Amino acid sequence: MSIRNLELRARTVVEGFWHGLHRSPYHGFSVEFTEYRPYTPGDDPRYLDWKLAGRTDRYFIKKFEDETNLRCHLLVDLSRSMTFGSTGYSKADYSRTLAATLAWFLAQQGDATGLLTFDGAMREYLPARHRPGHLRQLMLALEKPAEGRSTDLTAPLRRIVELVRKRGMIVLISDLLAPIDRLASALGLLTASGHEVIIFQVLDPAELNFDFQTAARFEDLETGRDVFLEPAQARANYVRRFSAHLEALRETCQGLGILHVQVSSTHPLETVLFDFLKARADRGKVIRRRAAMT
Predict the structure, then answer these.
(1) One domain for residues 143 and 276
(2) pLDDT score recorded for residue 151
(3) What is residue 20's predicted lDDT score, i.e. its pLDDT?
C-alpha cells in the first residue's frame, strides 16, 4: 500500500504471487462477432476480413463482443463510509487496490474485465473488454476519489443487470454497511440473472474490534450525524449488533449461492487473490461435475 501508483501496486501483488493460467468454466463461451469497422494503420492484421476484402476491395476489421475465457465485472463501492480508515489508508484505498489487482491478473490471463464504481448512484462504467489500453483506462477510473454520501446498492446493481446481458462473473467489493433487506433485494437481482457472484466485504479493523479506548465524538460519514460515545459502555451493544448484521449477511449470501469473503483492510492482498482463484477453481469443479452427470 506504500506504492503510490495504483497500477504498479496491483502489478507487484500479481507478479509476486501467480504465474500461469487459470481454468474457466466459460472457456470459449462468448466469442461472438458483432460488427465491422474500417481498417486503419496500426490495427492488428489478424482481424482483417480477407473474404470481404476480396469482394469489395476494401479492408475491414472484425470487432468482437468478447474474445476471452471469462467476462468479469468489478463493482467497487466508493461511498463515504468507504473513506474510513484507522491504518493509514482507507477502506476505499484498499478496495481500489483489490479491484486493480484482480483486473491486472485477469488481463494477464486474457480475460475481459469491466468496472462499475458507485456510491448513491453509478459513477463510472467500463464494459468488460480485453483490448490494448483498456486496463489503463480501468486503472484511471479506479483512481478517482470517493465523493458520494449514502450507499445504495439497489440502483447500481439493477443497472449492471441491465447493462450486462450475458452471463459472467460479478465481483462486488464493498463494506456492505446497509440494511439487510435492501442488500438481499439488490443481490438477488444478480443471481437471478445467472451471474456467478463473489463478494469481498472490506472492513476496517476498528469496525471489527471497536477497540477505541477514550470517549470521543463519532461522525456518521454518510449522514454527517455526530454521536458522543463512551466506548466502554457502547462496545457490548455495538459488537452484538454488528455480529448480527454479519451473520444475517452470510445467511443471505448462502441462500442466494453467493460466495461471501470478509476481508480486513490489513489482510495481505496475495491471500485475497488466492481466495478469488480458489473460488474460480471450485466453481469450475462444480460445473464439470454437473456436465458429467448430464
Answers:
(1) yes
(2) 67
(3) 37
Rounded distance between C-alpha atoms, residue 234 and residue 212, angstroms = 10
The C-alpha atoms of residue 113 and residue 287 are separated, in whole angstroms, by 22
Pair (52, 126) in one structural domain: no
Task: Report the interhelical angle of 134-142 vs 6-15 (nearest 10°).
Answer: 110
Please state the domain count of the chain.
2
Report pLDDT for 24. 38
The model's confidence at residue 128, banded by pLDDT at 50, 70 and 90, is: very high
Which positions ≥6 away from 259 have C-beta within 8 Å? 197, 198, 199, 253, 279
- pLDDT, tens digit, 9 for 90 and up, residues 145-169: 766 666 678 888 888 889 988 888 9
Claim to verify: residue 53 and residue 138 sit in the same structural domain: no
Is 1 domain-assigned?
Answer: no
Please indicate, yes or no, whether residues 196 and 129 belong to a single structural domain of this protein. yes
175 and 39 fall within a common domain:
no
- Give residue 43's domain range: 33-64
189-215: pLDDT as tens digits: 889 988 889 999 999 999 998 888 888
- Between residues 150 and 228, the one the model is more confident about: 228
Same domain, 42 and 135: no
Burial of 21-31, coded b for 16+ CB within 10 Å and e otherwise, reads ebebbbeebbe
Shared-domain flag, residues 159 and 73:
yes
Strands 112-118, 71-77: pairing is: parallel
